[in-house]
Amino acid sequence: MATENWDQVVEDFQDSPTLDAWRGYMKEVYCRLTRRWFETAPPGRRLKTDLFEEAICLQHPMAEFPAGSLGMDGSISVVARAKDNLEDSIGYRLLVGDLRQSPIRAGALSSILSGSSLDHFETEEELASGLAEVSAGLAPGGILVLTLDNPQNPLIWIRNHLPYRWLNRVGLVPYFVGMTWSRGEAQRQLEKLGLEVTAESAIAHAPRAPAIWLDSLTRRWGGDRLRGLLLRTYLAFECLESLPTRYLTGYYVAMRARKPSGRQA
Q: Most C-beta atoms within 10 A of its C-beta, which of 71, 96, 185, 211?
């Protein structure tokens, strides 16, 4: 998606109602994932590969990142707004950069969260190029947590086979969604880059459209207590991650990949 389009998307989100319960839910989903999968990551600098959540709200995964972490986005407007929201955070550095041509020095990072960042490109070649660039930033022993739109989820499958312009016009898809991979293909691509896939799952099981609609209603007529109830309800759906059907209900496929140490490589 072109940078200027993301600039407009961020502007539109600034003018739309704040979805506190939904944003809190997505933050907690990603924070739970990173707490679990970064637990054994080596010490060092962490990167988040997009700053959209940080730009549009105060509930975002970087809230739990260690001091000195990096954030990167291709949009100057997104980075500028994220900087305003993170101004009180300790030691974060925010960069403007294209994931297909990452400015991060090879081997400079101990851990990376790429949360549905790479599935906004139009072609599979761009998706593969972005993954290769992101992975190159990992130091030996470093951990990549990657999430992509889950094509096994029937709602995602239907969305991806309908015209974007129509979906955008009726408000179901506020921004462009591009290529994605199944979990099997994502694993093959990671292994092709020399990474070892150590865990995989599906996350974000709350039905997106009804959840956002309910959040909008509570914004108009509800209070903090009702929004807190909504948040707990959304999070209750994450119990579906433990079931064999998780790849049918999760909106994102999640992979944990480790870059082998020097000897193993």
A: 71
